[in-house]
Predict the 3D structure of the following.
Amino acid sequence: MSKKNLRKISADDKMKCLDILWTCIASLKTREEVKNFFKDLLTPSESIMLGRRLQIAKMLLEGKSYDFIGESMGAGRATIAGVHQWLNSGFGGYEKALQNFETQLKKRFGKKDHYHKETPMSFAWLKRKYPLHFLLFNLLDKEKI
């Protein structure tokens, strides 16, 4: 898609473009519909960059330092500062979305935090990757619950 200079688009046209975007997103009912819509709308790179901004916002809300976020995410200070600015002076969208994210995780996975994966090659990771090889262990784990 060709890039358009925002200053050359009339306020009415901007409003129409944003209205169709917000209305389309609001009309989606399930996670799968939202996922498919954004897969069609955004390039994989754009999707990942939006997800990274959300991860940075989550870390900032958790009180993590710029240095920690920069090291763990490989993000520049300018990116972190931009997200921080939107958190402080935005419309509350980041906080609301991240609050809803935590709620959805709890609904999907219960009290266990499955979002954070086990360390590769750990015993827990192997049990999950090869459930039939560890059938006895998995059955015993289920009885403990």
Observations:
- Residues 43-111 form one domain.
- The chain has eight helices and no strands.
- Helices lie at 11-27, 31-41, 44-61, 66-73, 77-89, 93-109, 123-129, 135-144.
